[in-house]
Design a protein that fits this description.
- The protein is mostly helical and about 120 residues long.
- It folds into 2 domains: about 1-50; about 55-90.
- About 70% of the residues lie in helices and about 0% in strands.
- It contains 3 helices and no strands.
- It has helices spanning about 1-50, 60-90, 115-120.
- Helix 1 packs across helix 2.
- The longest helix is centred in the first third of the chain and has 49 residues, at about 1-50.
- The radius of gyration is 31 Å and the shape is flat.
- It starts with a helix and ends with a helix.
Amino acid sequence: MEIGIMFWIAIILIAGIWLFLEFKKLRHRTVALILIVLVLLTYFSFTASISGKNIDFSSPSGWGKAGSLYFAWLSGVFTNIKTVTSYAIGLNWNESKNSSLENKTVPVQNETQESIWNKLK
């Protein structure tokens, strides 16, 4: 009886250690995946922000101009996010007396018109 219990305790310990190591690997994979996504996002946003601006990357002034364009674009993105968020926070999410749906008239079905259920009989 004790050998069976010791066997199951050993199995549970081995499974626990294995799961711990797998979660540790998963955490590293998740961090690596997030970093890869951030690098790709930065690359594509940088190329989108400087496209069509004729930047000369052979000189330090060109790199400075590209950096300033990118950070100005990034600042605009954060400003837009701030505006949308502040607008969403400022909305009255409760029922409003000035609702656009309040003044709409809902068409009432004509009483003389035959219902679909009567047509199906």
